[in-house]
Write a structure and sequence with these properties.
By secondary structure, the protein is of the alpha+beta class. The protein has one helix at 77-96, and strands at residues 2-8, 15-25, 29-45, 51-56, 59-60, 69-70. Strand 2 (15-25) and strand 3 form a beta hairpin.
Amino acid sequence: MVQIKIYTYDGLDSLLANADVMFMDLDLGPITVKGFQIWRSQFQNKRLGGEKINIEPPSTKSDPKVAKYQFVHLDVEEMWFELMTQIYAAYKKEISKWEKPSQDSHSP
């Protein structure tokens, strides 16, 4: 079981939200990984229905000359795509709370 908490941002250039992902381990109990990033992208993400969004695992870049170091790695690539899909679904659910409902053509 995975639980996802989304933290949206308004007014930032490309960062749309952060996500915390909580996994339940049978021996250790809940384990939360904080800092997944949801970014606006110039490219369509085919795995996310063509939306221009990129989801990245927690990482750091302390020196601009050095590549990012990712803190989370899933050994099975398909599991990363499944997790990315779940984070995306949680993000869409969160932002739907803030979107205005569409006007029904039958409304007065």
